[in-house]
Design brief:
The protein has 281 residues and is α+β, with helices and mostly antiparallel strands. It has 12 helices and 8 strands. The strands form 3 sheets. The protein has a 3-stranded antiparallel beta sheet. The longest helix is centred in the last third of the chain and has 19 residues.
């Protein structure tokens, strides 16, 4: 057992040198009898150096996990990403994904940064646990996306490959059972990838870009200048119909849009927000 006194300054120095967590640095210095080089080697073996070395690697594979509260008013989504598909199927990776989701449910963090800082049962943070598995597996692992949404009724959907997940916030259900309709809308979002719930949710810069593109195309077609504005407005409406959820044709019945489908399901039912996450997109 080491008799070398490890000071806070020593720990901080190693932390600055390696980027590893404070507790990991202290343990490594104790185990290495205060030898900095040996402590760095120990941290490397635990994955700290591997994590840094692979920090620029692309993470296009992984697993999307979702939990919706028992009363249906809150939903949490965690997308844990890795570099290759085989790793996404490894038991340790899948167990980690579930542990991170469970930490989110238990602690209700607002952001991915807050989620990463949560301490798990073994005393390590989520971030430290991810780093350790990075070293064990040899691939970059990151929390690619995290969502925490609340509302009157949350419905979720995970695609069969586990790489895409959707959370939808419904309002105006008024006690009606919207389970089936909610799933249909969540699957619509997965398939059609709308950019906003409705027209007023579209970024003004996007609207301006669509108008300018439409005008250029119209002019290239030789249309009179006095018609350009009117035709561009029509093209913008087509953009809204294609790209905003409530205005899209309902995939399962093209005779109605999603807004009308929801109103037919339960008078006043609508979507107030959604989150769609796709790994590798």
């Amino acid at each position: 057992m080491s008799t070398v006194q490890i000071t806070a300054a020593d720990v901080n120095k190693l932390r600055q040198q390696t980027g590893a967590g404070m507790m990991d640095c202290k343990k490594a210095l104790v185990e290495a009898n205060g030898d900095f080089e040996a402590a760095v080697d120990l941290l490397r073996k635990k994955g700290q150096k591997v994590s840094a070395a692979r920090s620029g690697n692309a993470t296009s594979e992984g697993l999307v996990s979702i939990a919706v509260s028992a009363d249906g008013t809150n939903g949490k989504l965690v997308a844990l990403a890795c570099e290759t598909e085989p790793v996404s199927k490894v038991e340790d990776f899948r167990n980690l994904a579930q542990a991170v989701l469970a930490a989110a449910v238990a602690n209700n963090p607002a952001t991915a940064e807050e989620l990463s800082a949560i301490t798990l049962e073994d005393g390590r943070t989520v971030a430290e646990t991810i780093t350790e598995l990075t070293g064990k597996i040899g691939e970059k692992i990151v929390i690619q996306e995290y969502a925490n949404v609340s509302g009157e009724k949350i419905v979720s959907y995970i695609h069969s490959n586990g790489k895409m997940g959707v959370l939808v916030v419904f309002e105006g259900a008024n006690g009606a059972d919207i389970t089936d309709a909610g799933k249909d809308v969540a699957m619509q979002i997965a398939a059609m990838n709308p950019i906003a719930v409705d027209k007023d949710g579209v970024d003004p810069a996007t609207i301006e870009r669509e108008i300018e593109i439409a005008k250029d195309v119209i002019r290239q077609e030789g249309k009179p200048e006095e018609m350009v504005e009117k035709i561009a407005a029509g093209k913008l409406n087509k953009f809204y119909k294609d790209s905003t959820l409530l205005n899209q044709e309902f995939v399962k019945d093209s005779s109605v849009d999603v807004r009308k489908f929801l109103d037919n399901t339960s008078k006043g039912l609508t979507v107030s927000a959604f989150k769609r996450v796709q790994l590798g997109a």
